[in-house]
Design goal:
Number of helices: 4
Number of strands: 16
Number of domains: 1
Strand content: over 45%
Helix content: 10-25%
Radius of gyration: 31 Å
Order of helices and strands: HEEEEEEEEEEEEHEHEEEH
Structural class: alpha+beta
Shape: elongated
Distance between the termini: 6 Å
Amino acid sequence: MKRSLSAVPVMAPLAAALLLLAQPAAHAGIVAADSNGAGVVLDAKLLGASVATATLPGPVTVFGVPLAPAITGTAAAGSTATGTPYSSSDAVATAIVQAHTVATVVPYTTNTSSVNLTAQALYGTASFDGTTVLGNGGVTNLGLGLSAVSTLDLPLAPAVDTNLWSMSLGAQALETTSTIQQVGSSLMGSNTLNSFAGLTLSFNIGVAAPLVLDLSAYTLAYLTANPNTHAFAGLLDPLGLSLVLNEQFNTCSGLAACFVETNAVHLIANPLTAGIADINLKLGHSFAEVTNAQVTAVPEPRTWALMGLGLAMLSVGVRRNAQRSRD
């Protein structure tokens, strides 16, 4: 019998290399996702009493009672525990919130607090397409007023009003987007400030002259380069105010979980830490979160092709070797 060179030693290394190249690629699968967007998120407590909570567009609660029909719509939000895509959006025009609370502290002395909010447009978007989780929220032409007044009304004397504190905030356009995206086997989060214009803040304690801050100089380009800007910290902190511009939170450092939140403006107020007010206000708010992501090996079409070619080459080599062995 004539000995022949086996085809297996020649073709086996090439076939093995093709099989190695054909190993399934790892992909991140987003299992649980949440996102939302709102123009205004407000939690106001004045003189120790809850005055107003609001997520606009969406529900408003005044003194624990839902306010209707002044505000309609639902704040854009989405959530999935099974990886199912979702998409929602909402917007309202001409939103108005007015709330007042009255409390008698001592005889003949009454404290009155109020919240007044108007906006030309409030909007939000939330979506998840299987690989990208997105939240977007904005507000235009916003006017917000907060105040607390003490009234002394003694018998046989005219009532005297004393301004404890007041604050007004205006904004022309505020909008942000928070995004989490699957890139290969990783999760990447991004914070985006889309618009920031016409922000002014006026604050007054007692009968002192009002402190007026024009923040319009903080342009979009400046804020984009300087996230988490604590505006006028040295001036506002002693007054019990914290004002953060282009606030960004981003915990996307691994695969399993990821959290992104962006606020064009975040104001926290507790004037003089005297318990007169407790204000938590977010403007141009967006949020995205992935609480469960998994890596799964899923063969792609190219993978199947390489595997098939490698197996075919091995099969041809074996058949040729068997044929030559019989010769």
